[in-house]
Amino acid sequence: MFPADRNPRIERVRFELRSTGVRPQAANPLRSGVHTRGYLPHVKREGARYFVTFRLADSLPKDVLLKYQAERAERLQRFYANHEADKKMRTAVRTQETLDEIERDYFRKVEKYLDKGCGECSLWRPEIADLVSGALGYFADERYRLGAWVVMPNHVHAVLWPMPNHTLSRIVQSWKRHTSREANRLLNRTGETFWQPEPFDHWIRTDEEHARCCRHVVNNPVKAHLCSAPEDWRSSSAWRGEPPPK
Q1: pLDDT by residue (tens digit) across 104-154?
Q2: Closest Cα to residue 202, out of 244, 223, 225, 172?
């Protein structure tokens, strides 16, 4: 679905720019490449689809999060150590797990804990859930195509495809900035952190993975034993009968 990283036409343009003394524009890591905000690396690809999760500030105790991060860091360290050892020995990589598996296991642990409903769960309140639901769809089909989405009691999932000239980071930042201000007003709070600063985002590489992410999103309320069917959960694309974009 996505083009190969190396494009001979792009390389030819770069050569022509260099030969005329014009320096090519550096790539924006928020559009393509890898950048980091805090402790998580974020992989970006121009024109890609993403699965995004952001959660309330009190939804995951710090000691629990640090435990999960330490386990993930240990597995990553072991992965890269094995990879380097195989490179030195000039043998095929024999690592038993992949980076995707490590990231997936880390997210599953966080997700399982979030589904316990820890913290104040301010998104239980209909007016706040409606606020977040409205923010997700406000610029749909203008800044991004919005697929499956759900507002859980203490976190939010969304599958989206940023439009050209709109970055995933800016889109999520806009959602969080607007809803945090209005939610704190509804809660009669001032200056308190509403969302956890660091979201989780995953670059969706295939159509099969896209379908799997959408199923995960709409089924989250059922999995968390909050309702019996996806369409029963009011703050979701399933309840509104919105099919995910192809």
Answers
A1: 899 999 999 999 999 999 999 999 999 999 999 999 999 999 999 999 999
A2: 172
Which amino acid, residue 81? Answer: A
Three-state DSSP string of the chain: CCCCCCCHHHHHHHHHHHHCCCCCCCCCCCCCEEEEECCEEEEECCCCEEEEEEEECCCCCHHHHHHHHHHHHHHHHHHHHHHHHHHHHCCCCCCCCCHHHHHHHHHHHHHHHHCCCCCCCHHHCHHHHHHHHHHHHHCECCCEEEEEEEECCCEEEEEEEECCCCCHHHHHHHHHHHHHHHHHHHCCCCCCCCECCCCEEEEECCHHHHHHHHHHHHHHHHHCCCCCCHHHCCCECCCCCCCCCC
Residue 75, token pair as written in the block? 């597995």
Residue given tokens 């022509």 in the structure block: 16
β-partners of residue 157 are: 53, 150
Cα separation, 167 vs 45, in Å, equals 10
Residue 132 or residue 86, greater confidence: 132
Residue 129 half-sphere exposure toward CB, CA atoms < 13 A: 19
The top-scoring range by mean pLDDT among 97-101, 157-161, 187-191 is: 157-161
Q: Output the CA–CA distances (angstroms, integers) from residue 27 to 24, 31, 103, 218, in the order listed.
A: 9, 8, 25, 35
**Contact predicate 102/75, CB 8 Å:** yes
Mean pLDDT for 153-157 is 98
In this prediction, residue 97 carries a pLDDT of 75
